[in-house]
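Blinded run. Sample ID left blank on purpose so nobody reads anything into the name before looking at the predicted structure. Input follows.
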Amino acid sequence: IVVAILGAIVQLISLIVHFAAPSFMTNSRMPQEAWANMFSGTIGVVSGIIAILLSGLVLFGALKMKKLENYGLAMAASIIAMIPCFSPCCLLGLPIGIWALVVLSKPEVKSAFH
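Blinded prediction complete.
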């Protein structure tokens, strides 16, 4: 739940900065790096929106995991939380995702889902 909320907040801030940055960058005399140009424009907005949607999916899966409902969604949310490309909280998402997968793989936990 924490990883999903932090990921969504960071992506929302990223989108706000993305829309506000062009006005700041036009006044700057520093040349932009090629990798910064690659994530500007449409690609930056689309990737931010996809990341927000995936954070929502992780949050929904985590809430279902907490209620012991929908085992498949809980597993999918654990795996998505570990992917660093979709989550800016990869340092937090990776260990928590691994821990969730280990716990979800136990037979007694798997049988508790309905």
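Unblinding after everyone has recorded impressions. The helical segments are 2-25, 34-38, 42-66, 71-82, 90-104, 107-112.
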